[in-house]
């Protein structure tokens, strides 16, 4: 596998990981209070930053595909497994609500010198080991209800990609506008 700048996979992964961590730290996501405030619906900056990243990536991928730089048939799109997604979502959500981190931001917190980032990272490791131990007993349940096979959002909605991107952008602008109004003039998010 060749990554950005024609570097081998692990090297490009490290470079991109450090870059992503730098952006997360500068956005304040190394502080567990930021994610907890998002879950309490009092600070929408996590949603806005992550949703902006999703939209930027989707737009760039669509442009690259249109220019023939990326063959979308070679891009992996996972299928939806309803029960497995529910189990994983509940497990991750509870962990994020209790610890105030997601798996990526706990590393950012740890690299920023936060001991709770290490504790959460150890919890992620323990949860992974528990899941691996339980997997043989739950794999049939997790894969029991399969959704559409490897469909993208435009395929699922039967709409052109540009229209879905515009809709997602409208959601982002709407959330940004609503949260700006709810804070009042001259107030900033924590």
Secondary structure topology:
Blueprint (H helix, E strand, L loop, with lengths): L8 H18 L5 H8 L5 H22 L15 H18 L3 H9 L3 H28 L10 H5 L3 H23 L7
Helix pairs in contact: 1-5, 2-4, 3-8, 4-6, 5-6
Describe this protein with a few key phrases.
single chain; 190 residues; mainly alpha; 8 helices
Structural notes for this entry:
With 190 residues, the protein is mainly alpha-helical. The protein has one domain (29-182). It is 69% helix and 0% strand. It has eight helices and no strands. The chain is globular, with a radius of gyration of 19 Å. The protein starts with 8 loop residues before the first helix and ends in a 7-residue tail after the last helix. The relative contact order is 0.12. The mean pLDDT is 84.
Approximate helicity band: 55-70%
Low-confidence stretches: none
Distance between the termini: 41 Å
Radius of gyration: 19 Å
The tally of helices reads 8
Counted beta strands = 0
Helix vs. strand class = mainly alpha
Q: What is the overall silhouette?
A: globular
Task: Sketch the topology as an H/E string, one letter per element.
Answer: HHHHHHHH
Count of distinct structural domains: 1
Q: Average pLDDT, to the nearest integer?
A: 84
Main β-sheet description: none
Share of β-strand residues: under 5%
